Description:
Helices cover 56% and strands 8% of the residues. By secondary structure, the protein is an alpha/beta fold. It folds into 2 domains: 6-70, 434 Repressor (Amino-terminal Domain) (Orthogonal Bundle), CATH 1.10.260.40; 75-251, P-loop containing nucleotide triphosphate hydrolases (Rossmann fold, 3-Layer(aba) Sandwich), CATH 3.40.50.300. Helix 8 (122-146) crosses helix 9.
Amino acid sequence: xxxxxxxxxxxxxxxxxxxxxxxxxxxxxxxxxxxxxxxxxxxxxxxxxxxxxxxxxxxxxxxxxxxxxxxxxxxxxxxxxxxxxxxxxxxxxxxxxxxxxxxxxxxxxxxxxxxxxxxxxxxxxxxxxxxxxxxxxxxxxxxxxxxxxxxxxxxxxxxxxxxxxxxxxxxxxxxxxxxxxxxxxxxxxxxxxxxxxxxxxxxxxxxxxxxxxxxxxxxxxxxxxxxxxxxxxxxxxxxxxxxxxxxxxxxxxxxxxxxxxxx
Length: 263
């Protein structure tokens, strides 16, 4: 063990970030990497002068390349937007507005921008032109928005992650954050907003919601960060999210504008 240094502290933050993103406990990662939990704790705290061989063991356990843990932080990532993902009821709008105010950056809702581009309300857009047209317009609007690499907070529709090209575009050009919650949280928040349609129009809505969560969770897990909002107020969620962003921004790959081109 050694005293901490900026280099070892940065390495420790990267290891902790990737471990948490993989939903691994410290003990689980230590077991996978054939290390003691105490040693791995020292690595994440920036106190362990770790050897290349042991660092490689950690990278393999996290299914990463060594370069992912050793990459020099790129400050360009700080200028990019923050994109909030999750199902309806995740709190993307309420959390997004409060986070944007805290960071003193603009807040945008991708669905609103798509509706503005189409000159129609979202319901009319879907009924007149269908989902394929909406998804194409969504990708076009997102590409234009990300091309400037400006700071901001963007709330995106829950289904965006189901379109690989659009989700890849978002991940390339923004810091993606999954606002995770329990099925009951999603349900109760929608009802509290005064929307009774889930119960009236679909008797099996709760079961359908749980099936939707099961299908989309593997996609949401690809986000840069996950913030569990279970039992948290909006204020507490924003505080936790701001702290996670502060820890992770310098560790994530640099943002690059989308490449020009058609569909």
